[in-house]
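FORM 7B: Structural annotation worksheet

SECTION A. Query
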Amino acid sequence: MADFLLLALLAGIAVALVAGPLGAFAVWRRMAYFGDTLAHSALLGVTFGLLLDINLNLAIALGCLLLALVLVALQHNRFLATDTLLGILSHSTLALGLVCVSVFSESRIDLLAYLFGDILSVSQGDVISIWVIAVVVLAALIWLWRPLLAITVHEELAQVEGIAVVRVRTALMLLMALVIAIAMKVVGVLLITALLIIPAAASRRLSKTPEQMAIIASLLGMLAVVAGLAASYFWDSPAGPAIVLSTTAIFCLTLLKKQQA
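SECTION B. Predicted structure
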């Protein structure tokens, strides 16, 4: 196996591993639009990284974390409906990021790589950083699993039971921001939410417990990464979109299986 393909496979598997359980919570809590907003804001992180001359991966992660905190604060004030607020921020941050990158960047950068991913160009350093963040996020999810399930089922009841609902919800948003930051290299700004949502939606039909759904979502995501990279290698197709199409194909297969049952 070529070195670049092995690195891409390792990076994709790491993202799929942690995107599975996070995607499950995104499906349960109807947070797909929240993920879209964070993903679109990631391009602003690229802008700040270029302007401040700092590591782009670090800048993207910091930008996503900052916007997640801003969204938490704005949702708490509730001066606008959540979906309206997310719609405004999602498209505004994407447009602002595109304009800033094109205007303020002295060196030409490949915008398509940020919009649709460039997993085949990941370096050994990228793979190490992706795995470190993935392991940290996975450990945090395991630690917060029961409180997260409790607030997903019923926030008021969880608060009565002594769970710090706001802190747990904020932690979930920050973890999602970190995963979106590392997934940007794999599938790009415009396709990140698909990698979160589609495997989780597919696993919903194949599982009976929340834990099963999270694990199966990770496995389906990994399968999609392998299939997408294989399609990219043999048919010379863009890897990020190929991975997303693989998740869609898997989801369609689960629909057929459901109909046969």
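SECTION C. Observations
The CA atoms of residues 204 and 224 lie 16 Å apart. Residues 3-256 form a domain with the ABC transporter involved in vitamin B12 uptake, BtuC fold (CATH 1.10.3470.10).

SECTION D. Sign-off
Analyst initials: ____
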